[in-house]
Amino acid sequence: MDQSFGRSQKLKSRKLIDQLFMEGKNIKSFPIKLIYIPIKNSEKNELKTGVSVPKKLVKTAVKRNRIKRLMREVLRKNKYLVTKDLSSSHAFMFIYISREEMSYEKLEASMKRIMEKFREKH
After folding, report:
1. CA–CA separation, 78 vs 60, rounded Å?
2. Which residues does 49 contact at the CB level (< 8 Å), separation at least 6?
3. Nearest-CA neighbor of 27 among 101, 100, 119, 106?
4. Domains (ranges, CATH) in the chain?
5. Region 57-69: what's the mean pLDDT?
6. Tell me, what's the pLDDT at 45?
7. What pLDDT score was predicted for residue 50?
8. For residue 10, how many other CB atoms are within 10 A of its CB?
9. Maximal CA-CA distance, the chain
10. pTM for the structure as a whole
């Protein structure tokens, strides 16, 4: 089981990010919201993922960066929940929607719930 989160798995394309926010569907599980969209022109089944913490909700950069690090770590450890049954490529954006900083365990539980909901839909 590959637990890396390499360059090819990161969501970097500005076009794809804009398309994600315009046409994407969402799933919520407090304190995380997932916006996703299938990627059309992709040869292999892959997952392009980004994480975001709004400045409006978490004011200091130190706290925002810590939350993003924790979210990426949870994703890296648990991405197998989505990728094992993936039939096509998808772009994911995980957005933190709480004002308080959550523990690793709460983030992990929330991310697992979101991934289970996504698997049920697809």
Report:
1. 27
2. 5, 9, 10, 11, 75, 79, 91, 92, 93, 94
3. 119
4. 7-121 (3.30.230.10)
5. 96
6. 77
7. 95
8. 13
9. 40
10. 0.91
